[in-house]
Amino acid sequence: MKQEEFAALYEQEKPMYKAWADFVLSKIESGLLNLLDGSKAKYDEYVKIAPSSRIKTTDSLLTKAFVRKKDKYKNPYQEITDKAGIRFVVLLTQQLDQLSSIVDHHQAWTYSKDKEFDDWKTSDPRMFDYQSVHYIVRAKKNFIYQGINIDKGTPCEVQLRTLLQHAYAELAHDTIYKGNIDASPTVKRCFAKSMALMETTDELLCGAKSELEKCANVITTWRDLSLTKSAQLLPDANWIDDAKNIEFYLSKFEPLISTLNFNDFNAFLEDQEHVFLAGRIKKHQLDKTFVEFKLPVVLIFYFLAKRKKTVIKNHWPTDFNVLQIIFNDLGLAPNWPTR
Amino acid sequence: MNISRGFLMAITFSNLNFKRIILHNVYAPNDEGLVKPFCSAVMTVLDNEGSQKLEERLTSVLGSSSHSLQMNIAQDGKASCFHFSSQLLRASDDDFIKDSCELANLHTAAHTNKAWPGGTLIIIDGTAGAANKRCLFIIKAEQQAGFIESQENNTIKLSYIENLILTPQARLYKVGVFVEHGIKSIADDARSKDDFEAYVFDSNIKAKDDRNAAKYFYSGFLGLQVPENSEQRTRDFFEYSREFINGSELPDEKKIDVQQALHTYLKTDQSNTIQASEFAEKYLPEEFRDDYTDYVVKKGFPATAVVKDTSLIKRRLATRKMNFSSEVKLTAPADKFSELVKIIETTDDHTKIMVKGKLSEQDK
User: Fold this and answer.
1) I want to staple A73 with a disulfide (CB 3.0 to 4.6 A). Which of A79, A106, A122, B77 is the partner?
2) Bridge partners of B333?
3) Chain B interface, Cβ < 8 Å to A
């Protein structure tokens, strides 16, 4: 194919490539949102650079086919698969696995990987080099998307990277890999050192994150429980239900609540012996002496006072008059000097 | 069943609500004999904060883990404290004012020693517990002296006052309470004591050397007596505590220490009462305390105090026994156990022990 014909064909097909890239992007995004319970906040935590689709300019495609890689392809128009491309940048490698799985399982396309995240396993494990997942996804059948016909087999490159890989790639990829500048051994060594550090950093951060989630898990579960139960107990009360006050107390009580279970808490609230709790809390809310009684976590104060009566004083972070009111309601004698 | 031992399940003083409050002053006798009380002619009304604090004073000394004691009602005749108290629960306001003064008179009659201070009787009719059981609380508050500090312009003023009552210092108030747990006798002229439970708090009961000062209040005035089951209760406490310690996840060396502490608590401690929460706070590591008190309370031991009577376990307290997995047994005098027997090393299959003294005799 002559350059002129090649360019003309591409100009004609460009809208199709653009539409296909947009389609793939929207499907991966909705798959991800689904995984994150539809929460936009979680999505923003997850995806660090807003994903976008791009298509190669005609000049860029031409120079790739006829200048830089002119000896590589027999049939360059068919074989160059990154005419359209999209890229997702997430925070950590753990998230890459989840994202890969979305790409792997979508019904609208077939996929192949021309670069795997764990390529090092099959090449030289001692090397520290550019890492990223590159997919080529191809339309399974002819269809129309946003008024544009998309042919079966139309390819789109999907790159999945972490933020650290992205930083490395932005610097290294264009100079060492794509470029035809022969990098000196010193330059290569420097890049390998950075990549080794980034892989290590990623591993440490993944570990840190999972530890964090382990403790946060106890706290978030109790937080959600106190929110639901307080709303059930006194639906008309003006509960101060923002998370940070609840989490403040729960983080102080962590050594205590981690030994107790949720069923015991529910049983405590349903116990006939404690039917008066709603009324007492209501009264303290109306007294307006202590705002603590408007925090949903107050239910957990009562629960802990009952179950951990001898030790709760050692974990109580605020005014002891509040704890004394709670002890009084439950008929427990305080074991600290009172006023 | 083991749980009751002649008692109904003890009430928890949760969910306190006060209905009526009246105050009468009582005095120590003088050289001419008894001094008549000063009875108020109107009831006292407290604001929210005052009421909350008064509740807290009561919970501190009657609540679970407090030093209060469940008692038997011994005097229930027409002139008894029980009789007047039970009548006050359903009395009209006028009768409440008038008859509560009878309680002050009863107190005066029992107040036979000049050395015991006078004070203020606070008589409260209210409810407690999830089931809102009717209760009559009788507080005797002794006066304290102190200073009031106040800032004025550029100075801080101190004024002396003599008649401060009901500070958090529980040493200076005593409480008796009658709780109505049944209403079988409600139609009768005089209520049956079977419908009631009685509790008392008096820091003097705990101290061994001040029995008369305690007795005038709970016995002479309130007409109560220490339940006859103290010796069983004390034995229960000993057994439940041993079970808990042995079955706990305490390290072996710590178990030996805590068993020793149990002997000390029952044998040498000067206190006249025993109490699971007190033992826990004194001798158990923090993370075992609540499990321990829950354990003994589930077994039926009171969450408050009982009078100590070691007569049933005297012999068992005199010696300590250790059993080894190889069926070797060791006994030693309990009071000097830690001096006489030292455990040097323990592994899964042997224990190294150093015994003070020389082998003097052996049975066949």
Assistant:
1) A79
2) B319
3) 12-16, 48-49, 52, 55-56, 59-66, 128-130, 168, 277, 280-281, 286-287, 289-290, 293
Per-residue pLDDT of chain B (364 residues; tens, 9 = 90+): 333 344 445 789 999 999 999 999 999 999 999 999 999 999 999 999 999 999 999 999 999 999 999 999 999 999 999 999 999 999 999 999 999 999 999 999 999 999 999 999 999 999 999 999 999 999 999 999 999 999 988 999 999 999 899 998 878 899 999 999 999 999 988 999 999 999 999 988 887 666 778 899 999 999 999 998 999 999 999 999 999 999 999 988 889 889 989 998 998 888 889 999 999 999 999 889 999 999 999 999 999 999 999 999 998 888 888 888 888 888 888 878 888 888 888 888 888 889 998 888 887 6
- Say what the pTM is: 0.72
Question: Which residue has 């107190």 as its token pair?
Answer: B107
Per-residue CA distances from B193 to B130, B182, B222 (Å): 22, 10, 13
Cα pseudo-dihedral B36, B41, B47, B52, rounded to 10: 40
Mutate to test the interface with B, among A286, A304, A332, A336 (most CBs of B within 10 A): A332
A287 touches chain B (CB under 8 A): yes
- Give the other-Cβ count within 10 Å of B212's Cβ: 14
Contact A94, A208 (CB under 8 A): no
Distance of CA A323 to the CA centre of its chain: 39
Q: Chain B contact for A258, CB < 8 A? A: no
